[in-house]
Design brief:
- The complex is a heterodimer of chains A (about 350) and B (about 500).
- Chain A folds into 3 domains: about 90 residues, Ubiquitin-like (UB roll) (Roll), CATH 3.10.20; about 90 residues, Elongation Factor Tu (Ef-tu), domain 3 (Beta Barrel), CATH 2.40.30; about 130 residues, Nucleotide-binding domain of ferredoxin-NADP reductase (FNR) module (Rossmann fold).
- The two termini of chain A are about 30 Å apart.
- Helix content of chain A is about 20%, strand content about 30%.
- In chain A, strands 11-10-13-8-9-12 form a 6-stranded antiparallel β-sheet, covered by helices on one side.
- Chain A has about 350 residues and is of the alpha/beta class.
- Chain B has one domain: Ribonucleotide Reductase, subunit A, CATH 1.10.620.
- In chain B, helix 5 packs antiparallel against helix 6 and helix 9 crosses helix 12.
- The chains are: A alpha/beta (about 350), B mainly alpha (about 500).
- At the A-B interface, helix 2 and helix 7 of A face helix 1, helix 3, helix 11 and helix 13 of B.
């Protein structure tokens, strides 16, 4: 059976399987806790249990976690399993800008399906009643009929539209779930969903200009975030650099050009990596990180950057941003961690907390 | 809405705010005279993220508890004659080498961190270094206490400080740390906190602590756990230092790269001693040096450097050489210890048959083709009553001070020697890595106090032969020095266990 674990000061609640170590569960859920050795010897992952019962496994060294600490309710996240639902307090930074909307299970009805590009569909989901409260940038889990386990999709629409959520779904070659959604789903079908999820949102209280770097269907979150910002009267400079392979794959360009025409503090830079001759493309050519380096003269200090897209694009952008003097504390990415990714994450170095 | 809890970081900030200040009677540059000359640019010390938030009050409480636990186990080990439960007295060669070579480094680390704990302008960095300085002092003391029990029963544990000053092979670890301590504060923390305590720490501690556990040394195993619980702070400090410096200014990147290149290679060379411990000194083996290098460097180390490459930091220079050499260095080092043990404060021996087979299994063709035949030749000489000892002093690398016994990376039959001229003097090196380090800082390394030269110049009590040198070390053949199987340690071990001689030259060599 599974237990609920709430992590303070984030206030985030996750599920921990029977016998699963707390650290493992947190990292898989995308919540970073400080850790190093991962087998009970170093004590880096020490956390305070505020409520509930835990069990120390034998891995926890009596020197890394001493008796007096056990009595004080401390435990090593890497070597602790849950016996009941628990609340722990970890040494992590709180997120003052997180709205912490409650997660709900709901059934939505497909109201519209739009072909955005040859590979990306815009799927609109109608929600009855009060709709869904979410923070721009978050995602929902969708149960795709006939597919084991839910699939995560970012919400592309603004939180102002609570009764209709837009998802951008790219058909992945050989991907059963996306093929179903792009080819078999019809208007009027119902799908079971849960959400909102994720900690990808605009750090509203930070004064810095905003830089969005997006690629492919990773435009969804930035679209929601940017529309939300301007609906709320954003005055800081906002830049969106969006990468697509060719003109046919570039979507919502007119929408963003119109927004840029309306708001002097919004800059829109589409960039194509493989423009076709027929495209007669006169804009930026290359990858998103190339265009970003050119536009900002390879200096990014003093920004907050939000990255959303395929992993190679995110990695290339992180490198460009860091070599342009923007570091982890100012870079936010949307990452969907699979079990395989999380297993690799443990072998990865603890140099970076979130990136 | 519920009141938000302050994070631990915020609570610590509120508790410690205002404890540091900008000096006004004296300019800050005079108060902190050493933290700028390396060329490292720090724009904003407030961006330093305390890698751990510990008050002195809590520090004393936790450390006292650790001591209580440790000393209870040390007492019980000693009262129960724990030395008799070791796998084999040969194991203690590893502990002797550790006590002579590594324990003084813990003390040197205490001195080094006390120094930089005064010299950084940022209070966070100072506090982190001061706490680590206390940890290191504790480690030096508790190691000596853990090992002191063996001093009642075995030779070679007396006067580690005396050995440290005089033994030729101990200039290897000693010069390593003195190089770090005489560098600027940023180089010191990069070398010790990052390169040594973070990147290479598992290669140092794993064979030592697991080796102790495998070989029945409860005292040392317990010390290891007690120290490792402090290492979390040391490792996170190492990571924070590197991130902080790299993020502060782009001009810092090439300086840090040079430090990383240098200290990766210096640390790697020092670890040749530890690798030899794993492959040859532990009667019950944990894993081979080649396997440990594979896990801790080729997997974990490369993952770290993949992350660091985002800052524009590349893999340390010559890392690929180190990986290729993993199949050779420990065999070459043990061969030197085997032949030079009349002038060491520990014993050496030929691997027993089960160990030769283990080495064949772990090293395959490398061992069978290049090293087994030499050990067999030495074995033939032993049987003929002509145990081979070297009778001359080696050429020593000017940088790492290891005798020049390493071979060319692509030709294990050819000794690798490099040279450099500086101010009319010729200097010798074991490798391109060590030569590069010298060429970057010739003024520093030309002053290295190289034991063979000093001995020949009469600065080892006027010793002219190896026997005289050993006497100056206060070591004697059969007691502290020489082959294990002709030592008092071995004779006593047999006597205490009521056993007969099972030297490898007799066919009935037993596996411990």
């Amino acid at each position: 059976m599974a237990f609920q674990l709430t992590i303070e000061p984030l206030g985030e609640t996750i599920e921990v399987a029977d016998g699963q170590r707390i650290l493992d569960a947190c990292l898989r859920a995308g919540i970073w806790l400080p850790y190093a050795c991962n087998h009970g010897l170093c004590g880096t992952c020490k956390v305070q249990v505020l409520e509930g019962e835990i069990e120390h496994t034998e891995d926890a060294s009596p020197f890394a976690l001493m008796d007096i600490e056990r009595e004080e309710g401390k435990c090593l996240a890497c070597s602790t399993v849950l016996a009941t639902d628990c609340i722990i307090e970890a040494d992590i930074d709180p997120e003052p800008d997180a709205a912490n909307h409650p997660i709900r299970d709901f059934v939505a009805t497909v109201t519209r399906i739009e072909t955005l590009t040859p590979t990306i569909k815009g799927i609109f989901l109608g929600l009855p009643g009060v709709g869904l409260d979410f923070q721009a940038g978050q995602y929902i889990n969708v149960d795709v009929p006939g597919i084991e386990g839910p699939r995560a999709f970012s919400i592309a629409s603004s939180p102002a539209a609570r009764n209709e959520l837009e998802l951008n779904v790219r058909r992945v070659d050989g991907g059963a779930a996306t093929t179903y959604l792009c080819e078999r789903l019809k208007v009027g079908d119902t799908v079971s969903c849960s959400g909102p999820l994720g900690r990808f949102f605009v750090r509203e209280s930070a004064p810095e200009p905003l830089l969005f770097l997006a690629g492919g269907s990773g435009l969804s979150s930035p679209k929601s975030m940017i529309e939300d910002r301007f609906e709320r009267g954003e005055t800081r400079p906002v830049t969106l650099i969006y990468g697509a392979r060719s003109l046919a794959e570039l979507y919502y360009a007119e929408r963003f050009r119109a927004l840029a025409a309306r708001f002097a503090n919004f800059t829109y830079i589409p960039v194509l990596s493989e423009p076709q001759a027929a495209d007669q493309w006169r804009g930026e050519i290359g990858f998103v990180h190339d265009a970003a380096a050119r536009h900002f003269n390879a200096r990014f200090e003093g920004h907050k950057a939000y990255l959303c897209g395929p992993p190679p694009m995110i990695e290339a952008c992180i490198r460009t941003l860091m070599q342009g003097r923007l570091f982890e504390r100012d870079i936010y990415t949307e990452k969907f961690l699979t079990a395989a990714d999380a297993a690799q994450g443990l072998a990865k170095s603890p140099l970076f907390k979130r990136l | 809405m519920a009141v938000k809890k302050a994070s631990l970081k915020e609570k610590y900030r509120l508790m410690t705010r205002g404890l540091d200040w900008e000096t006004t009677y004296q300019p800050m540059d005079k108060v902190f005279p050493y933290d700028k000359y390396e060329g490292i640019k720090i724009k904003d010390w407030d961006k330093w993220e305390d890698p751990f938030r510990l008050t002195m009050d809590a520090y004393w409480k936790y450390q006292a508890e650790k001591e209580r636990k440790l000393y209870a186990i040390l007492d019980s080990f000693s009262q129960n004659n724990g030395q008799l439960n070791l796998s084999d007295a040969r194991y203690l060669t590893a502990i002797k080498l550790w006590m002579q070579g590594i324990t003084p480094l813990e003390y040197a680390a205490h001195r080094g961190f006390s120094h930089v704990g005064r010299q950084f302008r940022g209070a966070g960095a100072r506090v982190a270094c001061q706490m680590q300085a206390l940890d290191e002092l504790r480690h030096a003391q508790t190691q000596m206490h853990a090992f002191s029990h063996y001093n009642k029963y075995f030779s070679g544990f007396h006067q580690a400080n005396h050995m440290r000053d005089r033994a030729w092979y101990l200039s290897i670890p000693k010069s390593f740390f003195e190089d770090a301590m005489t560098a600027g504060p940023f180089e010191f923390v990069t070398s010790i906190s990052f390169a040594f305590e973070y990147v290479l720490t598992n290669l140092l501690f794993m064979p030592f602590v697991s080796g102790a556990a495998y070989n029945g040394d409860v005292a040392t195993t317990t010390f290891g756990f007690s120290a490792q619980s402090d290492e979390s702070r040391h490792m996170t400090l190492g990571l924070e230092v590197v991130k902080f410096v790299l993020e502060q200014h782009e001009d810092n990147v090439p300086i840090m790269q040079r430090y990383i290149d240098k200290w990766f290679w210096r640390g790697y060379r020092l670890l040749a001693l530890v690798g030899t411990m794993m492959d040859y000194m532990l009667p019950k083996k944990v894993m081979s040096w080649a396997e440990a290098w594979g896990v801790y460097w080729e997997e974990n180390g490369l993952a770290l450097f993949n992350d660091l490459s985002r800052y524009g930091i590349r893999l340390p220079k010559y890392h690929e050489i180190a990986t290729k050499e993993k199949l050779h260095i420990t065999h070459q080092a043990w061969m030197v210890f085997y032949t030079a043990c009349p002038a060491t404060a520990f014993h050496a021996w030929l691997p027993q048959p089960y160990e030769m087979d283990w080495l064949s299994e772990k090293y395959g063709e490398t061992f069978d083709r290049f090293y087994r035949p030499r050990f067999e030749k030495f074995g033939d000489l032993e049987k003929a009553g002509k145990r081979f000892y070297t009778n001359r002093l080696p050429l020593v690398c000017q940088t790492c001070q290891i005798p020049d016994f390493f071979t060319e990376v692509d030709n294990p039959m050819k000794q690798a020697v490099r040279h450099s001229e500086w101010r009319g003097m010729k200097f010798n090196f074991c490798s391109d890595g060590c030569k590069d380090i010298f060429v970057n800082e010739p003024e520093k390394f030309c002053q290295a106090y190289i034991p063979p030269q000093q001995i020949y110049q009469g600065n080892a009590g006027g010793a002219r032969t190896l026997a005289e040198y050993a006497a100056w070390l206060r070591c004697g053949m059969g007691t502290e020095s020489g082959d294990y199987y002709s030592s008092d340690d071995y004779a006593n071990w047999l006597k205490w266990h009521g056993e007969r001689d099972t030297t490898p030259s007799s066919s009935a060599a037993a596996q411990p």
